[in-house]
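Q: Convert this sequence to structure tokens.
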Amino acid sequence: MIRTSKTLVAALAALSFVAAACGSDSKDAATTAAPTTAAPAATDAPAATDAPAATDAPAATDAPAATDAPAATDAPAPTDTAGGDAVSLDTNGDGKVVIGVATPGPRDDGAYYQALVDGVTAFSEAHGFEAPIIVDNIKQEEAASQLDSLARQGVDMIAVGAGEISDPLADLTAKYSDIIWYCNCGAGHESLPNLIQSGDDGSEMGYSAGVATGLLMQAKGVTKAAMIGNNNFNFEVEAFKSFELGLHSVDPTFEWTYVATNSFNDVAAATEAFNNLKDQGVGAIWPYLGGAHEAVVKLSNEAGIITMSAGSSKACARTDLKYDIAVRFDAGDYLDTILSEILSGKLKRGETRAFHVGVDPQGGAVICNPTPDEQTKMDAAYALIASGDLNDEFGAIKGEAYGG
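A:
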């Protein structure tokens, strides 16, 4: 769930504030119907030895998140691309299609990274392609060599799972120009002739998550919520601030705290942060994490604390873990649309596909088992996001997070 590239702030604003995510999920009780009213990673630093200190609001730093959702009428167009001639993904002409996947986190993290891996695998199976080649746990300093090695394995397309390992793309997309390169880069990467990107809006995701959490906190009678993250990266700041905006739209007295663990994947650090928050009486926790995500969800289940996914659209369907909310910025769901539009010729190299809450069906938070009143209020939140009435507030949040 990584966001990098500070130079892209202006471009993000032009894309209706395209920004955002860290973060595989499996299957629980009932899935949620998404709103029906017309109108979402940096390198791991050394794990902290002492318990992470909670802060009232994170500071900005370098760095960058699905099921059914409503269509909106007065909202930005989902994509700028026009239709085109169908294309083949067999870019090297060897008679088969192989997609490579590169992620900075584990392929089975139960959240953001696994969503991309599962999406590529399912798409490949559905279209009769070869099994994808997965390279995971890529460190930022090893990204160039790992991506170069993947490109030399006869792949036709490479899907890069996060912006934190995207720095080598300028050189590699030119060096291996026959390969179709795709990056789910979150906050975005510089435009390159041979790079297809997807983007979402982190403020839209965070706001919807804040509203959903606030509604469940009201019902449960708790007043404190927290986000466990990495190290105040700019996309985390955006998620934190927009969540706060949504949370306070439900009840301005609710408390909202951020805890840095210096890693998306350090289970021990995340566990320590969770225990500290539980002792402080926190009743809702967003584990904005990768490899450590599921550990916090399990602890939340045991403690009866409201919890939510960080990317996966399948959270509500899980049976091994219980999610109260699915915060959907699922790379696998994005990829299904991306690949379909590439095959149809609608989406071309060098272009970016923007996904918006309330406009496209893939993104935004949903309550897993909402009451009719909660669903009505979530519908209204989606409609408000899609209307553009929050754009000034979202713009201010992005300015604070990215220094623009």
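Residues 1-83 have pLDDT under 50 and may be disordered.
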